[in-house]
């Protein structure tokens, strides 16, 4: 992955494997959104689904992460049966672009490369991506699409982005370190 | 978990079920545009009734739909409206353009007729959107969804992602349950006995094997697809996309009519002869409406002005 | 002489990600209409060889090709996978992964869709191919309603195009229960007879494939073809042991009886086999010989199910009023086809689900009052696929996970990890990355991670799935050690009859949520009625006994007694 151009890293290589992986990512997103929540209070839970675009991004780049989160969200909405809310799906997809940008700054998880400096950049991008997605994109879309009040949507989106950042950093970073170490052991050139 | 899903994997027996994937996706997309583009109860209520008729015609199992609607939707709306009242009591003025005060509370809190109207229309708008998604989900199988999207112009590789995702969801949900069980036996606490922080950290134990199990199948599936010529041509056809029948033609014409009507409404009421506020209201005549710039209503805009 | 349809000449292949080649000096000619078995243990290169024929190499797997491989007149190096897929149909090992459509019809139509065939033309072809494999009444069914065998039939129908000349079956038996495996072998045989297509079967389960005739066997070992002749000749040779392939059970019995393998007609087909006079007598004498009886196990009660029932939806009981008792130190096989209730019983035992009625006791304690975590300290459950269990990257951390999350002290944890690693023979590998070891070793790691909690019972779910004979033998040796030396009670959830014969004392057979047999393993395996009910397959010992006119129960008992006595 390291020898690819910036554009290739951004867009990903769309062969059959990528398509299958993104589809599985979308399915995983749907499953985690529906069943993988961590209950905090009644009716409120931290969703772990946003870890999926991180992993897809780490393997294939930000655009595949974007698609996985977007399609995953639509599917999660259809499974859950709570309606389809494009303001949030698009917001999640935009955030996915940022959290899934790992190859752009040299973190190649499948080749076992993930260091502290990558973790720092990752955490910053998580904060930035969520702020842009849920601080700007989602509130504007909520107002435009559904006529929601700007002030209320800002507050809701702010709470949503905080919980996403919490999950992406607290769970995401240990998972990325663990995955990098495990993938490194797999890329052993010597046959057993 | 299958009984929790609203979307059906097998096609149903009614007229709507039998329409082709393209007809259903096209209708859904136009419907969504119409709902999103209009803030006018005169448009939304007919659309809501139309969607309810669609849902009823399919004779679905109402219980899960009503439960989700009652729990998620009503509570979210209720909470949202309480928040709205506390944060933006001006919402009626800002969006509807009138200020007939019914009740003056302490400080800046008050309720106006327009505030209630705004709440009501937003609720109708969201309910209509919910109903249109339900109607679509009940009528469409995932493969029809994928083939319909492709016919609407989305690249087929993206459409495959949709159908493949549906294909793998039950397997992944199954893996998820098995992995959670095995972790519970090893003593990883996921229930409310553990603190939120602990549970958050324990999720790592669940997600790592899930990621390896789920993505471990990528190669096999991709090989199976490559070996059967996936990606050979720039286009592909779909077994799930039925040939259009008489009813398909009728529905497609009706959808185009809806599309034209929506475009006409938007052009007329937003550009040629724009209504001064975002929401139409029965008791406010055009010249009574007070026009407010949406940007000015954001609370932190005041900080910049100072 | 016809032209070969597949021709390898001095062919070799090395994967880009590996240092050494996977295939060396392959010289092979296969003629149209032949039915060939490509036999080999895991890592022998048999699957790689097939991927060279169907074009996945070099399309999906980068690497270095030497020599030439011509399939149907086309040099594969320069042909596209799409061109090859017109003449080569491949049925992959994992029939679930191969099923990409959302209904039977869609999956059969998948390649037609990619050929931009209009739907009108697709429908008759789909119907024709579906009825060829007997799936014509299931066109609208979704994959989740189908059994493994049905999915495989769909996969066959999906690659069966007009122009396909060669059909490759990559480990067709791996995911099937024994009776479905027999159906699959018969189906492949019918296709071969009716269609005159060239058939390649890639497998390591020799006895199961030989259920129907094979023209030729190609045995692979460490990337080379080491044997290429008829199945009879293969059985007479000593190549099987050398290459880590399990020989048919009746051949083992013949060897135990001191029979010569020369001179018997139709050696590869037990039904048609004609023994020499001398052999027949030797076999009869062997099975009637008086031997030391198997020891009875008189342990205390370890697990007890008392009239346990359970249903998922409240409608039909998946486990229906079952009662049984397992004594300490027993090795028990829980057998039955998928959906018979054996996995549900295991889940009930572990406390993941709780009985609707009845009680389950472990060491005399009702599990009703115990949490899953507490039961986990008594009963260790090892899942089928080790990848669904492994979290950590280093072996010793993985083994210690259950102790760490329980918040044990550092010294205590370390001591227990060390003990478990030593018991499981992993101590030397403790600092190795989990992902650098083989599948079989991973399985051992998952057992070790259960052993760290020092449970008295180990439940192993399909311990032999996805493994070749070598790895199977290794794991069974290890499990038997845990049983004999440490007195652990072992429960196997399996449909592998070999495993039951060789490694268990007792078998409990499930059918439709009920127990239909609970007896000594030889008594169960010789009971034809039970075997039929549970969709199992008779072992060849049973057929052998019938052929020789002996009592099957005594025959199987004698075989087991001999085998246990030797080991």
Write up what this structure looks like:
- The complex is a heterotrimer of chains A (192), B (306) and C (567).
- Chain A is mainly alpha-helical.
- Chain A has helices at residues 6-11, 16-35, 51-60, 62-80, 86-99, 116-146, 150-170, 172-186, and strands spanning 38-41, 44-46.
- In chain A, strand 1 (38-41) and strand 2 form a beta hairpin.
- Chain B has two domains: 1-141 and 241-306, no CATH class; 142-239, no CATH class.
- Helices cover 65% and strands 2% of the residues of chain B.
- The longest helix of chain B has 30 residues, at 156-185.
- The longest helix of chain C has 18 residues, at 178-195.
- Chain C has three domains: 6-239, Rossmann fold (3-Layer(aba) Sandwich), CATH 3.40.50; 246-289 and 540-567, no CATH class; 301-539, P-loop containing nucleotide triphosphate hydrolases (Rossmann fold), CATH 3.40.50.300.
- In chain C, a hairpin with a 7-residue loop joins strand 1 (6-15) and strand 2 (23-30).
- Chain C is built from 24 helices and 20 strands.
How many angstroms separate the termini of chain B? 55 Å
| Proportion of residues in helical segments of chain C | 25-40%
At the fold tier of CATH, the topology name of the largest domain in chain C is Rossmann fold
Mean pLDDT of chain C: 89
Q: How many separate domains make up the residues of chain B?
A: 2
Unreliable runs of chain B: none
Number of helices of chain B: 12
CATH class of the largest domain in chain C: Alpha Beta
Q: Could you say which structural class the secondary elements and strand pairing of chain C correspond to?
A: alpha/beta
Gyration radius of chain B, rounded:
25 Å
Outline of chain B, from the CA principal axes?
A: globular
Multimeric organization:
heterotrimer
What pair of chains forms the biggest interface?
Answer: A-B, 65 and 75 residues
Helix content of chain B: 55-70%
């Amino acid at each position: 992955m390291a020898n690819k151009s910036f554009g290739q890293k951004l867009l990903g290589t769309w062969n059959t494997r990528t398509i299958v992986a993104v589809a599985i990512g979308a399915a995983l997103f749907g499953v985690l959104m529906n069943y993988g929540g961590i209950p905090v209070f009644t009716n409120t839970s931290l969703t772990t689904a946003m870890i999926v675009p991180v992993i897809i991004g780490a393997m294939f780049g930000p655009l595949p992460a974007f698609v996985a989160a977007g399609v995953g969200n639509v599917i999660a909405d259809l499974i859950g049966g709570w309606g389809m809310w494009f303001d949030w799906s698009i917001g999640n997809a935009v955030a996915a672009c940022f959290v899934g940008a790992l190859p752009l700054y040299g973190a190649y998880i499948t080749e076992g490369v993930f260091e502290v400096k990558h973790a720092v950049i990752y955490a910053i991008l998580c904060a930035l991506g969520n702020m842009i997605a849920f601080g700007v994109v989602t509130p504007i879309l909520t107002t435009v699409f559904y006529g929601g009040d700007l002030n209320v949507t800002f507050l809701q989106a702010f709470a949503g982005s905080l919980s996403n950042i919490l999950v992406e950093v607290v769970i995401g970073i240990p998972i990325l370190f663990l995955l990098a170490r495990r993938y490194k052991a797999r890329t052993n050139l010597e046959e057993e | 978990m299958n009984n929790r899903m609203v979307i059906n994997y097998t096609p149903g027996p009614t007229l709507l079920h039998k329409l082709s994937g393209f007809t259903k996706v096209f209708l859904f997309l136009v419907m969504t545009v119409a709902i999103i583009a209009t803030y006018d109860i005169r448009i939304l209520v007919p659309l809501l009734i139309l969607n309810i008729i669609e849902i009823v015609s399919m004779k679905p199992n109402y219980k899960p739909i009503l439960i989700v609607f009652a729990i998620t939707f009503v509570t979210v709306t209720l909470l949202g409206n309480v928040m709205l009242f506390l944060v933006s009591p001006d919402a009626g003025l800002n969006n509807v353009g009138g200020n007939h005060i019914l009740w003056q509370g302490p400080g800046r809190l008050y309720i106006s007729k327009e505030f209630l109207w705004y709440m009501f229309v937003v609720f109708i708008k969201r309910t209509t959107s919910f109903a249109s998604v339900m109607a679509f989900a009940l009528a469409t199988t995932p493969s029809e969804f994928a083939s319909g999207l492709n016919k609407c112009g989305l690249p087929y590789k993206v459409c495959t992602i949709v159908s493949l995702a549906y294909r793998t969801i039950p397997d992944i949900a199954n893996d998820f349950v098995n992995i959670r069980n095995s972790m519970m036996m090893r003593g990883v606490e996921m229930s409310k006995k553990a603190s939120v922080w602990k549970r958050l950290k324990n999720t790592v134990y669940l997600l790592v094997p899930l990621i390896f199990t789920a993505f471990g199948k990528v190669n096999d599936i991709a090989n199976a697809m490559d070996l059967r010529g996936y990606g050979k041509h720039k286009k592909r056809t779909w077994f799930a996309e039925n040939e259009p029948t008489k009813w398909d033609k009728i529905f497609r014409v009706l959808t185009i009519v809806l599309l034209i009507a929506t475009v006409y409404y938007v052009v007329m009421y937003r550009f040629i002869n724009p209504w001064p506020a975002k929401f139409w209201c029965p008791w406010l005549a055009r010249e009574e409406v007070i026009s407010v710039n949406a940007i000015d209503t954001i609370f932190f805009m005041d900080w910049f002005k100072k | 002489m016809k032209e070969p349809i597949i021709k390898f000449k001095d062919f070799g292949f090395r994967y880009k990600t590996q240092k050494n080649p996977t295939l060396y000096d392959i010289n092979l000619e296969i003629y149209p209409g032949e039915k060939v078995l490509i036999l080999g243990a895991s890592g022998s290169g048999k699957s790689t060889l097939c991927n060279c024929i169907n074009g996945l190499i070099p399309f999906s797997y980068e690497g270095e090709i030497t020599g030439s491989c011509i399939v149907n007149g086309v040099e594969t190096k320069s042909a596209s996978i799409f061109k090859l897929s017109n003449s080569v149909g491949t049925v992959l090992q994992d029939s679930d992964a191969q099923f990409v459509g959302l209904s039977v019809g869609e999956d059969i139509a998948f390649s037609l869709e990619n050929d931009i065939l209009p739907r009108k033309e697709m429908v008759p072809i789909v119907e024709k191919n579906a009825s060829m494999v007997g799936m014509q009444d299931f066109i609208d069914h979704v994959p989740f309603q189908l059994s493994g065998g049905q999915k495989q039939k769909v996969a066959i129908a999906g690659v069966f195009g007009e122009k396909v000349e060669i059909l490759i079956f990559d480990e067709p038996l791996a995911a099937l229960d024994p009776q479905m495996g027999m159906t699959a072998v018969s189906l492949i045989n019918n296709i071969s007879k009716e269609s005159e297509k060239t058939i390649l079967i890639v497998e390591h389960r020799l006895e199961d494939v030989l259920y129907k005739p094979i023209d030729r066997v190609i045995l692979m070992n460490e990337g080379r073809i080491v044997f290429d002749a008829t199945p009879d000749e293969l059985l007479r040779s000593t190549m099987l042991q050398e290459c880590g392939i399990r020989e048919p059970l009746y051949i083992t019995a013949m060897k135990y009886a001191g029979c010569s393998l020369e001179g018997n007609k139709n050696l590869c087909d037990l039904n048609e086999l004609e023994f020499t006079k001398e052999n027949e007598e030797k076999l009869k004498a062997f099975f009637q010989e008086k031997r030391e009886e198997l020891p009875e196990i008189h342990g205390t009660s370890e697990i007890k199910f008392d009239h346990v029932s359970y249903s998922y939806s409240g409608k039909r009981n998946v486990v229906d009023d079952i009662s049984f008792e397992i004594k300490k130190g027993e090795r028990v096989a829980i057998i039955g086809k998928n959906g018979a209730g054996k996995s549900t019983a295991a889940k009930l035992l572990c406390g993941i689900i709780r009985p609707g009625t009845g009680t389950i006791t472990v060491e005399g304690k009702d599990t009703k009052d115990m949490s899953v975590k507490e039961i986990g300290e008594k009963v260790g459950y090892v899942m089928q696929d080790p990848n669904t269990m492994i979290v950590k990257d280093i072996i010793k951390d993985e083994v210690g996970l259950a102790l760490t999350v329980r918040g044990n002290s550092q010294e205590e944890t370390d001591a227990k990890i060390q003990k478990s690693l030593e018991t499981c023979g992993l101590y030397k590998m403790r600092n190795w990355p989990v992902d650098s070891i083989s599948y079989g070793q991973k399985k051992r790691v998952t057992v070790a991670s259960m052993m760290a909690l020092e449970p008295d019972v180990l439940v192993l779910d399909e311990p032999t799935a996805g493994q070749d004979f070598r790895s199977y033998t290794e794991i069974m040796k290890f499990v038997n050690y845990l049983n004999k030396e440490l007195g652990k009670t072992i429960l196997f959830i399996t449909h592998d009859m070999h495993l039951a014969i060789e490694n268990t004392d007792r078998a409990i057979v499930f059918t439709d949520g009920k127990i239909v047999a609970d007896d000594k393993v030889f008594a169960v395996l010789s009971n034809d009625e039970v075997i039929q009910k549970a969709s199992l397959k008779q072992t060849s010992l049973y057929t052998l006994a019938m052929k020789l006119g002996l009592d099957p129960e005594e025959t199987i008992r004698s075989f087991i007694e001999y085998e246990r006595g030797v080991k």
